[in-house]
Write a structure and sequence with these properties.
Blueprint (H helix, E strand, L loop, with lengths): L1 E2 L22 E3 L9 H13 L7 E4 L10 E5 L3 E8 L6 E4 L3 E6 L2 E6 L1 H19 L17 E7 L4 H6 L11 E2 L1 H4 L4 H4 L4 H10 L10 H11 L13 H11 L4 H7 L5 E6 L6 H15 L6 E5 L2 H13 L10 E4 H9 L10 H18 L5 E4 L7 H9 L7 E6 L21 E5 L2 E2 L4 H11 L12 E2 L8 E4 L3 H17 L7 E5 L10 H11 L4 E3 L4 H6 L7 E5 L8 E7 L1 H7 L5 H9 L2 E9 L2
Parallel strand pairs: 2-3, 5-9, 9-10, 11-15, 11-16, 12-13, 12-14, 14-15, 17-18, 19-24, 20-22, 20-23, 21-22, 23-24
Antiparallel strand pairs: 1-6, 3-4, 4-5, 6-7, 7-8
Helix pairs in contact: 9-10, 12-13, 13-14, 15-20, 16-17
GO molecular function: 3'-5' DNA helicase activity; ATP binding; DNA binding
Organism: Solidesulfovibrio carbinolicus
Protein name: DNA 3'-5' helicase II
Length: 614
Amino acid sequence: MLHFMSGNAYALPYLNTYRGAEGMAQFFPACTNDFRTDGEERFYRFLDDATGKGNRFLVWYGPNVGGFEPDFIVFHPDIGLVVFEVKDWAVSQLLEADPHGVRLRMGGTVERRDNPLRQARDYALAIMDALHKDGRLLSRDPFHAGKVALPVQHGAVFANIFKSEAQEVGLLKIFPADKVLYLDDIHHCSDLSMDASGQALTSRLLYMFRPPFPFAAGRREIDILCDVLFPVARIRLPQRGNQESRENDQIRLALLDRAQEAVAQRIAPGRTLVTGPAGSGKTLVLVHQAALLRRSRPDIGPILMVCYNICLVGYLKRLLVEQGLPLGPAGVEVRHFYELCQELTDIGIEYEGHEADYYTSVVEMALESAQMSGPRYSAILVDEGQDFTAEMLKVLLALLNEKSGILTITLDEAQSIYQAHRTWEGSGLDVNFQKFELKSVYRNTIEIIDFVNKWLKKDGKAKTEVAGQLRGVHGPIPLVFKVESSQEAVEKTSQILQSYVKEGVSLSEMAVLFAATRDREGHYLPSLMVRSLEEKALLAGVISRDAYSKADFDITSKRVAVSTVHSAKGLDWLVVVVIGLEYLDSIRMGLRLPALSLVGLTRARERLVVIDPG
């Protein structure tokens, strides 16, 4: 046992050099400002600086592993996992230490605390146990069969003690420099912090925690670690198509970048605005935020997820259920906006088919009811926020806990397809939002995005485009057919979809979208489409016929979805046929046509067909 001399505590001021730029290490959670101690915040910022452009690092802060909460876990594919326990102690507080614990002067009392290296070791054992139970990272080597195939080591951080102080009082005998990082190492002017490449930190950790056995850590191993150490950050979609299409989906989803993960992990109270082009993962960010809130904060009150499109409600519910979240007050309540208004006013409301004045009155009554009933939600997550007026948003704010409530809104102004001018500018509602921009498009193939942008600019007037970094996979070039009539367009579509079915594409992964439901002769095109498909033994259904069909829509149903472009907003399919955009251009729509075209064309993930009835 060592006894320490009393001494003075030193602490360098921390300069906030948080960068968060692309190419940096990946943190779980990202963008957090919720730290338990000053030392943990200093070490978090240090890791952000010291990893630099070493984007092979993964860092977990305060994960829950088997009921334990280690301070930090750092992963590097050349090192493995290292668990760090962080302490804010000053030399003047330390009275004695041994391999099992320390005695500290805490104010006017003396307390016994666990040795942080022993704590970190126990956490490392818990991680190994979790990985062993998971079973996917066990060695296949006959000499080590059944053991975890990645090194899991442990260390400590003294955020307020210099190495010279530790040496002076004999602390290095219990906490050696090859197991512990001291203030010299982690302050903002240290050699490790100042190295923008991340190589200095990599070299130091390799010296301190040299792997005890050879191992390989690729994308598969990293994904498994993320599943085990931060499980709700993994995306799961409803199963709709065959095995091949599901594998392609997973390839696309694996391309979700750090910015999206950062937003998904943003669970602190406040207002957040998430913007991004079509196909950038805005809806999935909301789903993951709901999962994070419900699982990491079990005491949180009711959560509401709300959208404008009636058809989107069923899809949102599917995504939440796939995450294992219950629906309703104990999990997440999902409503389209006018359904919420009906619950607030307790009167029958027609969800569609009336003039704008009718819905203005509905919103006014809902706002009055919301203000009278008072807050009822701890978090409100709004999908497709560009469809909401300022008055609609006021209804939602009246239902949100004002002091601790969380409001997250996703939107893409380029997809504003409704006639009403939807803006919050000047309303006082667009202030105090923390803003995130998703820049990567992962839903569509690169060929589809290229086609969409060329289509939108073909007249030289439209400014709308899918503006983002293309991260999707490659696929077939979209097809364009010009036919003589609506009937010919319907027949051509049936033939195309029949050929895709013969190739193995599931009916639930195909959709036919009409820009306008009636042709010049007044024929109701969705019904003609269903009849033509059924004549070829292909089940189909009109999902946009009325509010009831929209509410009943199930994206996993084994039938071709026939819909308007408006009702398909927020959804996607493997194969999409869009009919009538050119016809619509010739009769109406004006400035809203580019947005409608963008929404329709970007519903296709891999195969897009455009048919012009002439």
